[in-house]
Amino acid sequence: LALALKECGYKPYDFIDRFRAGHLPRWDEAMNAKFYGKGKPTGKKELDELTGDFDVWSPRTSRLGSEEH
């Protein structure tokens, strides 16, 4: 999906981007807070710090930002 989005001119935020930017520990913390109630929930400010340079999130990444999951 990331490759298709790049072909369309978007800058997607996918797993490889999280890995390269060193964001994986912060994503682990955010997922543990959201889905397991461990730690402080991640707010919009923190998500913007991680993803502000990107146009779209990958489907897995977007689960963190949605309220229904």
Features:
69 residues; mainly alpha; two-stranded parallel ribbon; 5 helices; elongated
Descriptive overview:
The mean pLDDT is 81. The chain is elongated. The longest helix has 13 residues, at 24-36. A two-stranded parallel sheet has the order 1-2. The chain is built from five helices and two strands, in the order αβαααβα. The protein is mostly helical.
Most strands sheet: 2 strands, parallel
Query: Reading side by side through the largest sheet, how are the strands ordered?
Result: 1-2
| Helix/strand structural class | mainly alpha
Q: Kindly state the number of beta strands.
A: 2
**What order do the helices and strands follow?**
HEHHHEH
Globular, elongated, flat, extended or rod-shaped: what is the shape? elongated
Strand content: 5-15%
Mean pLDDT: 81
Explain briefly what this protein structure is.
With 69 residues, the protein is mainly alpha-helical. The protein contains 5 helices and 2 strands; from the N terminus they run αβαααβα. The longest helix is centred in the middle third of the chain and has 13 residues.
Q: What is the strand and helix layout of this fold?
A:
Elements: H1 2-7, E1 12-13, H2 15-20, H3 24-36, H4 44-51, E2 56-57, H5 59-65
Parallel strand pairs: 1-2
